[in-house]
Design brief:
This protein starts with a helix and ends in a 12-residue tail after the last helix. Helices cover 77% and strands 0% of the residues. The protein is an all-alpha fold. Helix 3 packs antiparallel against helix 4.
Length: 155
């Protein structure tokens, strides 16, 4: 089946709560056509949706530990998906900002700062002005750890 048919079938399976079958269908498509961005995106969306459904179920039954585990898993899934998408579309600046935010949300502050520094340098090098470079610069300032000032000795 082509990727559009696979995505539609997977969505129908997902709607019926058949997460594993939907994921298997998409995984087969990804294996057959690893460069198909639409299947990669469908895979990421499916994994996130399954995680969200499992988290709601855990919360509903009062399983706080499982809900917390799933929340951490979701942050990792978002990070993986955004990393893949950002690598595939490096010119998508909004996507790269979302990646930096996901890094921060997942507790990977150093990676978030690194992503923002690269983006900030690219924006500055291109002479980009406006709200995006300002927002990136402000966020970068907030995330960077304060560096201690070196003591100066009076002459």
């Amino acid at each position: 089946a082509d990727s559009a048919v696979r995505r539609e079938l997977a969505e129908a399976l997902r709607g019926q709560g058949h997460w594993d079958e939907a994921l298997a269908l998409i995984e087969e498509g990804v294996a057959a056509a690893p460069g198909d961005e639409s299947l990669q995106t469908a895979r990421g969306e499916l994994l996130l949706a399954r995680n969200e459904a499992e988290a709601r179920a855990a919360t509903g039954r009062g399983d706080a530990a499982e809900a917390e585990r799933l929340q951490k898993e979701r942050a990792d899934l978002e990070l993986q998906d955004l990393s893949r998408r950002s690598a595939a579309h490096p010119a998508d600046l909004a996507l790269r900002v979302r990646l930096a935010k996901a890094c921060y949300k997942a507790g990977r502050t150093d990676q978030a700062v690194s992503e923002l520094r690269v983006l900030n340098d690219e924006l500055a090098g291109a002479g980009t002005t406006g709200s995006l470079p300002q927002a990136v610069g402000a966020t970068l300032k907030q995330l960077q750890p304060a560096r201690p000032r070196r003591a100066t000795r009076p002459l």
